[in-house]
Amino acid sequence: MQFEWIQIPYALLTLFIIINFGLLMNAFVAKIGARVGRRVGIPIYQNYIDLIKNYGLRSSITHGVMFYLAPVFRLTGGVGLIMFVPTIYGSVMFSNFSFAGDLILALYFIFFGTLGMALGAGESGHPHAAIGVSRGLSQVTMAELPLALAVFSIALQYNTLSVTEIVAAQQGGVLNWTLFTNPLAVAAAMLSFLGSVMRPPFDVVLAPQEIPIGPPTEYHSSYLALMQTNRVIYPVAKMVIFMNLFFGGADNWPVFFLKIFLIYMFAVFIGVVFPRFRVEQSIRWFLIWAVPIGILAVLVV
Amino acid sequence: MKEELEKRIIKGPDGLEFEVEPLRDYYCEAPPTVMPAAYSKIVEDLFNWARSESIWILGFGTGCGAIEMRPLMTPRFDAYRFGVQWRPTPRQSNLFIISGYLSVKTLKRVIRSYEQMQNPKYVIGLGSCTINGGMYWDSYNTIKRLDQYLPVDLYIAGCMPRPEALLAGFADLKKLIRSGKAEGANEYAEKFEWYKANQKRVINDWDMPDYNW
Question: What is the predicted ipTM?
Answer without folding.
Answer: 0.87
